[in-house]
Design brief:
Among the domains are: about 120 residues, no CATH class; about 70 residues, no CATH class. It is built from eleven helices and four strands, in the order E-E-H-H-H-H-E-E-H-H-H-H-H-H-H. The strands form two sheets. Strands 1-2 form a two-stranded antiparallel sheet. Strands 3-4 form a two-stranded antiparallel ribbon. A hairpin with a 2-residue loop joins strand 1 and strand 2. Helix 3 runs antiparallel to helix 8, helix 5 packs across helix 6 and helix 9 crosses helix 10. It starts with a strand and ends in a 10-residue tail after the last helix.
């Protein structure tokens, strides 16, 4: 096993590659939820970062106050966050579908500010620790790979692929797509279109909640954790193509790896590499790598 790679210690290269894959998993899951909501509802869900934060806090609260462990939280927290999203869609968001997109954007942005402000008032800006559910790791000759971080990469990739398969290859996914593309025709088949739209928003929000649960043991559970991530995730969505499910997955993992390796070879550009990639993509393909050119 080489000790260095292009003048960089091989252990540092592997470590940053692992970090890049972990961040890429979060980018892919978050941008996938945004792509589902925008692609099917044409709503720019600016509350996605706050809903990611809510997922982490729900997991922390379930453990702190109810003694419910991480594995149950991984199931319950996305359902709870999805239910909050469904409440938002049913009571406010669906009233704006016939208006310009900017109204839904302002609504979700306001909801994000209220949610983050409420948690910051209650818990402050400092983070809450969450115990690592999987201790130990894989000790190799070149690096130590924690089991939990490997689990995050595998779980995020699995959920992304299952979501893609559900939407693109199942009857339920065809109903969801049809309900947004031609609602009048779908109603003639007896399908409840408002319910399908509600479930679509709940699915996208649930993915954000799932991401938040997985992030809790790695990062501090903080009211600001969503606002720190959402701008990068929007850049990932633009690069992959607004509304493109495949684009969100590929761009999420790809940009996570690029960002991680940039920290090794060009650390001074690590904070802006995603935005540089967005700038280049918009110059070459304004609709994104996988966006529709129609």
């Amino acid at each position: 096993m080489p000790e260095t790679l292009f003048g960089v210690p091989f252990a540092a290269f592997v470590g940053q590659l692992l970090v890049g894959l972990i961040n890429g998993g979060f980018y892919a899951l978050m941008s996938l939820g945004l792509a589902i909501i925008f692609g099917m509802l044409h709503v720019v869900n600016f509350a996605h970062g706050a809903q990611y934060m809510l997922g982490a806090f729900v997991a922390w609260g379930l453990l702190e106050y109810a003694g419910i462990n991480y594995w149950w939280s991984l199931l319950l927290a996305p359902l709870i966050v999805g239910a909050v999203g469904i409440f938002l869609e049913r009571t406010m968001l669906r009233r704006l579908y016939h208006l310009d997109h900017v109204y839904a954007l302002l609504l979700t942005y306001g909801f994000a500010l209220i949610l983050e402000g409420s948690f910051r008032f209650k818990f402050g800006a400092t983070g809450q620790p969450y115990a690592n559910p999987i201790s130990g790791g894989l000790d190799t000759d070149f690096a130590f790979l924690p089991w939990y971080r490997l689990w995050v990469i595998a779980a995020s990739l699995t959920v992304c692929l299952l979501t893609w398969f559900t939407i693109e290859r199942t009857k339920l996914g065809s109903y969801l797509r049809a309900a947004t593309e031609n609602p009048q025709l779908v109603r003639t088949f007896g399908i409840n279109v408002p319910r399908m739209l509600m479930l679509t928003y709940g699915l996208g929000v649930g993915l954000a909640g799932f991401s938040g649960v997985m992030a809790a043991p790695i990062y501090q559970v903080s009211p600001l954790m969503g606002s720190n991530l959402i701008i990068v995730v929007f850049a990932v969505v633009v690069i992959g193509g607004m509304g493109s499910i495949v684009g969100s997955i590929v761009a999420g993992f790809g940009l996570g790896v690029i960002e991680g390796l940039t920290k090794v070879f060009f650390p001074e550009f690590a904070g802006i590499v995603v935005f540089l990639a967005m700038l280049i993509t918009l110059a070459v393909r304004p609709n994104g790598l996988f966006g529709s050119t129609a």
